[in-house]
Amino acid sequence: MPTKFIAIGDVHTEYDLLWAALKAASCIDAQGLPTAPVRQGMYQVVLIGDLVHPKNIGEYTRLLGGESFDINNPEHLYRSAREQMRQLDRIMRYQQAAPHAVHILLGNHDDNILNHRVTLGTKSGLVHLEFDGKRNGLNVPLNLRSWMMGFMRELRVGAVQFAHVGPMPGMVYYDDLFYADQTHKRWWQDTPEYVQMAGLTYGVYGHTQMTGGIHLDAARFAMIDALSYREYLELLLEPSASDPVLSVKAVPF
Q: Distance of alpha carbon 164 from its chain centroid, rounded?
C-alpha cells in the first residue's frame, strides 16, 4: 500500500513555519500531537535536520520577541537558547508520540550543539554561541541531549534516501574533514550523479539553502532547504517496489 512521506527542510528556528507546514499537511492536531494518519503510519513525517541556530540576526531578534540581538550580551544568548530549547521540547513531545512515523535527521547544526567540535557561523560573520557553555551560552539539558543523540543520520525506504547533506557515506559525519570540504554545498550542481553512484533511485536532502523554493532535479533528487519559502515536499512511495517513487511534488502552504 502506498505511503505518503512529508519531508520538511532545515528549520533553523523557523518554528512557526514548521508547525504551519505540519498543519497544512494534516500531520498535527490542535494539541500539537500527531494526527491519526501519522499515528497509524499512513503518513510519515521527515524533518531533514538543523532544528537550531537562526540563519541571521533578524531571526535571533525574533527569538527575543523583537529586541535587537547582541551576540556579546550574555542575557541575549541565554534567552535565545531558552526559546530554542522550549521549541525543541515541543518537537520532542510531537516525535515521541509517534516515533514509528516521525523521523528527525541529525543536521550538522544539531550535532554542533551536542559536541562543539567547531564554532559555526554565517557568511555575514554571525557566530552561534548560545549553546556553548564555555562562552556564556547554555549547555543542552540532559533530556534534550539524550533525545537528539538518537536522531538518525539517514532514513532509507528501499532505494530512496533522506539525509541532511547528500547521498555519499562521508556526508553524514560532521568532523573536521566535513567542514573543510566545500563540495558538500555544491555536489547537487557539480556531481548530481552521486545519487545513482550511491545505488539510489531517489534522494531528499537539505543543508544548502535554495533560492526560490524546493529544487526538484531531473537526476531524481530534491533539495528541500526552503522552509522560508513556505514549501514542503510530499512523496508517495510504494516501499515494496523496486522503484518505490510514485509521485513527488513541492507543496506550498
A: 7
Query: Which residue, chain included where needed, has cell 503510519?
Result: 41
Domain harbouring 111, CATH code: 3.60.21.10
* Distance, CA of 129 to CA of 113 (rounded, Å): 9
Cell triple for residue 8?
520538511
Q: Are strands 154-157 and 202-205 parallel, antiparallel or unpaired?
A: unpaired
Hey, what amino acid is at 7?
A: A
Whole domain around residue 138: which residue ranges?
3-252
Instruction: Specify the 3-state DSSP secondary structure of 4.
Output: strand
Number of structural domains (the chain) is: 1
- Spatial CA neighbour of 79 closest among 92, 91, 94, 67: 67
For residue 187, give Cα distances in angstroms to 57, 125, 131, 163, 249: 28, 24, 30, 14, 22
Neighbours of 221 (CB within 10 A): 25
CA 66 – CA 69 distance, rounded (Å): 8
pLDDT digits (tens, 9 = 90+) for 163-198: 999 999 999 999 989 999 989 999 999 999 999 999
Rounded to two decimals, the pTM is: 0.96
